[in-house]
Amino acid sequence: MKLNALFILVLFWAIFRVTSKSLKFEKLTRFTSVVIPIYSMIMFIVTMIWNLKNFIVLLFLFIVSIFIAIFQVSKVEFKETTELDKHDRPVVYIRKGYPYLLGWIIIILVGIGCSALFESLTASSIFKEIFSEIKGELLVYSTFSQQKNWYIWLLSGTTSFLYTEFLKRKNPLIKEALQKR
Question: What are the pLDDT digits (tens) for 24-34?
Answer without folding.
Answer: 999 999 988 99
